[in-house]
Amino acid sequence: MIDRIRLDEKxxxxxxxxxxxDVEIVDTSSIxxxxxxxxxxxxxxxxxxxxxxxxxxxxxYITKILEEYGFNxxxxxxxxxxxxDKIQCSIALAKNGIPTPKTIISFTEEASxxxxxxxxxxxxxxxxxxxxxRLVAKxxxxxxxxxxxxxxxxxxxxxxxxxxxxYINKPNRDIRSTVIGDKVVAAIYRVNESGDWRTNTAxxxxxxxxxxxxxIEELSLKxxxxxxxxxxxxxLMEEGNDFLVHEVNxxxxxxxxxxxxxxxxxxxxxxxxxxxARR
Amino acid sequence: MKVECPExxxxxxxxxxxxxxxxxECGECGSQLVVTQVEPEVRxxxxxxxxxxxxx
Lengths: 279, 56
Prior knowledge:
heterodimer, A: alpha+beta, D-amino Acid Aminotransferase, Chain A, domain 1, 11 strands, B: mainly beta, 5 strands
C-alpha cells in the first residue's frame, strides 16, 4: 500500500519480482473503502499487505480497516500505533526493561516548567505524534522553555501533550538498526557533522555502516519485540559504554541502510512477507 | 522516455516503466515531482508539500 513510490518502494517491488512474488500496488490516493459493508472482493488475491504510506495516519487507518476485515498487514495496527505514539512507545520500552531516556509527560505549561526543572536543562520536547525530527526542540534554559511551550499550546491540542525528555549528551551520531521478524539484519550510524544535534538523515545526517555488536542486537530485538512482531527501524543512542533506545519506527525507510551496508533489506522484507503469508 | 518539468520546463529522463505515484526530482530546478499518469502518456505534477504526518 503506497501513497508515494520512493526508492525504498522501488527496491521492494524489484526484490519481490526477483523472488517471483506477485505484487499489486495499491495506490491509497485513489481508493475508497465502505467500512460498514466492506467488500473483500477487490483484495481477495492478496495474501499479505505491506503498508508503506508516507502519511502516517493514512497508513494507520488503512491497516486498521483491513485487519478488522481479516487481512494480514505488515506491520499490524497495534505495533504500528505503539511506534507512532511516542508515549506508548516509551512506556513499552520502559516496561520491558529497555534502557530509554527519562521521559515526563505533562499537560500544561506550568506543569511542564516544573517537569523541565526536574529533568534539568538542556532538555528535549517532542510532539507525541511526529517523524523526521519535526518540531523536536532542544531547550537550553527556562526562558526558551517558556517560549516553546507557549508556541506548542497555540499550534494545537496534540502539541499540548508535552513529551519532555532528558537530553543525552551523545556523540554527533545515533544508530538505526533494522529488525525484520526476529533478526537484526543491518545497522548504520547516522552522523551529523553540521553541528545540528539531531541525527535524522532527513536533517542531513550521513549514513555509515555500524557493526551489530551483541548489545546492539540484544537491545534492538528487545525494542522491536516490545512493539510487536514485524519490520522496524530501532533508533539507539550511545551513552557512556551502553546504549539507550529512544524510538522505534514502524515503516522504516531503508534505502540508505541498504546502500551503505550492502544488505538486501528489500529482499529480507519480501522473505518476511512470504513467511507471514504462510502462517 | 522524457517528460517536461512542469516547474521549469526542462526535459527529465524517466526510466523505461514509470509507475503512477513514483516520485522523482527535476535535475535542473530541484522540484519534487510525482507521476500522475502513465497511459496513454506519462504526466508528472509538482509533488504536494511534506505533510504534517509524513514519516516513518
